[in-house]
Design brief:
heterodimer, A: 298 residues, mainly alpha, B: MetI-like fold, globular
């Protein structure tokens, strides 16, 4: 027995065994169960098969569609903000001029927000976007001639607060990805381009951006799934899962409300299955469209 | 799957040849030495000012909460965090309260600390063990199983939480630390990172071990692990952060207040009827301190660890 366990044919399986067990017990079983439960009505532990009824209910549920709209909107807008802004910041930091100390300080300052927990970040942003006219964002609004804004009471201003939170926490991390990517672009490319008379801006669009493609693909991919799966930011900012007219409700928030708060497991599972299918479809489509898999096979 | 940013393969790829000289302005070597130098300094100033302004904006929320620790909690909650600070009203009352009369705060803090240390140690051990199997052996089914690792990385936990929650309740594991730790020991990103690192270790080293009669597992524990400290450090930081800040899963499984971790405890203070806002603000600030200290000491490993995901593309 010992000899078998120690042989070179068996050892690799022993090494990956913890992963296989985790995969089976904590991924395959729950996900399968999720599919099964989504076709059931689960009441007090009694499950009855009801076919696609949960999905039909979902289809006709305006709150679900609102949550879906909120999640998609948040995903699109975080990509719109969290790709170009960090990219430009990375390009500025990566420029050959400038004091290394200023740059190091800058990088550290932008990175620190990513170390905060969503709880602390949510508490702070809730207070920055408070309703009183002395709250920080209202002081800023006043500079531009706006009266005190009740940020978290209205849809668009609430969204602005959520996006500010996301930008604050993740701009630094995305910037680091881009800086790492930029450092692997051979300097000869830039030298050749400047000999040909290309300015900084043209170099950025014609050398930096195309060569960062793998990094860009990665950042967009995590933004897609991070955006669609967003829940805790909203949960903390609105101090709970309820927001005015459900303006902060996301798909995961709805799943949480139905499954955990209202114990409607069958219906909540259907929400989860739909979300999983959407995330996987968008991600796979995106990766196929950008040719990522082809490169992997090569 | 594609992206391989240079710093992430375990070794810094900043090979001397490729690294731009720190202040090597190419422009200055051009035929007209004066004009480019002028624009060079102007550029430096503009860039410096720009970077410092952005850095200041990024630091405002943290400075604000720091200032908040010296203010009266109910005031802060009522008025919000503000730019205009009444300096004469700042005091140390909250600090006195924190260290004498903060109820369960340090219990939460301690729980988080213990849980983080245990979880990180076990995750590093289990995940590197798995990664070694993927990196050092060829075996039937290897690529299939490795694709599963990649797949697991792309499924957000939020989609798993409900069935996992139901399952944990059925298994009678709810409200235990075991269940907070157990599902995440073989952690996909960490496995991936270690695999990448192990691939860079020369196979001769393993053969030498085998010749000396070391077992397959002995090679991992006695030869490979000791030379993997840089990867360990980066992953300890990444997992340490994840555990210390972990909120959603503990929120679902923990019920007993004595078992609450710091984020869960802080969240309980954030109620509309709260009477403990002092503790909320100073408590939130103190929860940042361990991480900030580690960050200042080990910045490089933080950045390496937190951007580790880019490997997977």
């Amino acid at each position: 027995m010992k000899q078998i366990l120690y042989s070179r044919r068996v050892a690799p399986y022993v090494f990956i065994l913890p992963f296989l067990i985790t995969l089976a017990v904590f991924w395959v079983v729950p996900l399968t169960r999720s599919f099964v439960m989504s076709t059931q009505e689960v009441l007090y532990g009694e499950a009855t098969f009801i076919g696609a009824a949960n999905y039909e209910r979902l289809w006709g549920d305006p709150i679900f569609w609102q949550a879906m709209y909120n999640s998609l909107r948040y995903m699109v807008l975080t990509i719109v903000l969290l790709v170009p802004i960090p990219l430009v910041l990375a390009a500025v930091v990566n420029a050959k001029i400038g004091s290394p100390r200023v740059k190091a300080f800058f990088k550290a300052s932008l990175f620190v927000p990513a170390l905060t927990s969503v709880v602390v970040a949510g508490i702070v942003f809730r207070l920055i976007f408070a309703e009183s006219d002395s709250a920080m964002m209202n002081q800023v609004a006043e500079l531009f001639g706006f009266g005190p804004v009740r940020w978290l009471r209205a849809d668009l201003t609430g969204l602005a607060a959520l996006l500010a939170l996301a930008l604050w926490r993740w701009a630094g991390v995305n910037m680091m990805y881009f800086i790492a990517g930029m450092q692997s672009i051979p300097t000869e490319y830039y030298e050749a381009a400047s000999m040909d008379g290309a300015g900084r801006v043209r170099q950025f669009f014609h050398i930096t951006v195309p060569n960062l493609r793998p990094t860009l693909v990665y950042v967009v991919t995590i933004s897609i799934y991070g955006g669609l799966a967003m829940f805790l930011e909203s949960f903390m900012l609105y101090a709970g899962n309820n927001s005015p007219n459900n303006q902060g409700l996301t798909v995961v928030g709805y799943l949480y409300r139905k499954g955990i708060e209202e114990n409607d497991l069958g219906f909540a599972s259907a929400v989860g299955v739909v979300l999983l299918v959407i995330v996987m479809t968008i991600n796979l489509t995106y990766l196929l469209a950008t040719g990522t898999f082809k490169k992997q096979e090569a | 799957m594609v992206a391989q940013p240079p710093t992430l393969d375990g070794r810094p790829s900043r090979s001397p040849g490729r690294r731009p000289a720190p202040d090597g302005p190419r422009a200055e070597s051009s035929s007209n030495p004066r004009a480019p130098r002028l624009s060079h300094t102007a550029g430096t100033w503009i860039q410096g000012a720009f970077l410092l302004v952005i850095a200041a904006i990024a630091l405002v929320p943290l400075l604000a909460i720091f200032v908040g620790t010296f203010q009266e909690g109910n005031e802060v909650i009522r008025r919000g965090i503000s730019f205009d600070v009444d300096v004469s009203a700042l005091n140390l009352d909250n600090y006195a309260m924190l260290f004498t009369d903060s109820g369960p705060y340090f219990r939460w803090f301690g729980n988080s600390l213990v849980l983080t240390v245990v979880q990180v140690a076990l995750t590093l051990l289990v995940s590197s063990f798995v990664a070694y199997g993927f990196a050092m052996y060829d075996f039937p089914g290897k690529s299939l199983w490795f694709v599963m690792v990649l797949l697991v990385m792309t499924v957000p936990f939020e989609m798993l939480m409900l069935p996992l929650y139901v399952q944990v309740n059925d298994m009678g594991l709810a409200d235990t630390y075991t269940v907070i730790v157990l599902p995440f020991l073989a952690q996909a990103v960490t496995i991936f990172f270690f695999r990448q690192y192990f691939l860079g270790i020369p196979k001769d080293l393993l053969e030498a071990g085998r010749v000396d009669g070391v077992t397959e597992y002995g090679i991992f524990f006695r030869i490979v692990l000791p030379i993997s400290k840089p990867a360990m450090a980066a992953m300890a930081i990444l997992n340490g952060m994840i555990c210390w800040n972990n909120f959603l899963w503990p929120l679902l499984v923990l019920r007993t207040p004595e078992k609450f971790t710091l984020p869960i405890g802080l969240n309980t203070l954030l109620t509309p009827y709260g009477n403990n806002y002092e503790l909320l603000i100073i408590g939130a600030f103190f929860s940042l301190i361990p991480i900030l200290i580690l960050f200042l000491a080990f910045q490089r490993f933080f950045i390496e660890g937190m951007t580790a995901g880019a490997l997977k593309g």
